[in-house]
Design goal:
alpha/beta, 7 strands
């Protein structure tokens, strides 16, 4: 069982889950962690080795020891580990915000398939509708996940999708340091759940996001992604 020094910080309700190679000091996740007093980054993970089982175990520890149901804010490969861990402890999860998820077809159980070979981890991910609210934030030119594949997983999980135009991998390299629009979306997501409303899918317009659009919560037709 993975261990996590998250236990040193028992009062948290938002878990930050970085992706492959972690999130550095200029990344929006680091900014969010510093901005929200109730946020903690999941620990006990080797960010240089994207191993689904190990990451999901570490996230599961943090979920289990939280004092109340938590919100998970994940990026890239961390999204895949987050939904895996959350599905094992759905009653302890308030919702998940999945920003620029990595394509499971690019990962094996041991790491990057280009380096390790092996089968895709797609079959290890949740197979049906998630038992908690979920929202995917997707970029139209993300090198780690095509929009057609985003639509497939959103359909499978019943996730809402917020499209933010050409935003790369929505990381520091793409210009996403402090990200007020992302925080506003998270706040709206939390408020919607509190009031029993649909998952919000629109971000405030920003210069780096052309054609900000969104879908509502629920199943997303896979054919809608064709031609994006």
């Amino acid at each position: 069982m993975a261990r996590s020094n998250i236990l040193e910080f028992p009062h948290y309700s938002t878990l930050i889950v970085p992706g492959y190679q972690g999130s550095g000091p200029g990344h929006w996740q680091t900014w969010l962690e510093q901005t929200l007093p109730d946020a903690r980054r999941v620990s006990g993970i080797d960010w240089s080795t994207p191993a689904l089982g190990q990451w999901a175990d570490a996230i599961g520890v943090a979920i289990r020891y939280a004092s109340s149901p938590v919100w998970l804010v994940a990026h890239s490969f961390g999204c895949l580990a987050a939904v895996t861990a959350a599905s094992r402890a759905a009653s302890r999860v308030a919702g998940v915000l999945l920003v620029a998820p990595g394509d499971p077809g690019r990962f094996s159980s041991e790491g990057l398939r280009a380096e390790t070979g092996g089968d895709s981890i797609a079959s290890q991910l949740p197979r049906g509708l998630l038992a908690f609210p979920s929202l995917i934030v997707a970029s139209s030119n993300d090198p780690w996940m095509k929009l057609a594949h985003v639509a497939y997983w959103a359909d499978r999980w019943g996730s809402g999708v917020a499209r933010i135009g050409k935003a790369g991998h929505i990381n520091e390299d793409a210009g996403f340091g402090p990200w007020p629009a992302g925080l506003a979306l998270l706040d709206a997501f939390k408020a919607a759940r509190e009031r029993g409303l649909a998952v919000p899918t629109r971000l405030a317009a920003a210069p780096e996001c052309d054609g900000v659009q969104g879908w509502g919560a629920g199943a997303i037709p896979r054919r809608a992604a064709v031609g994006w």
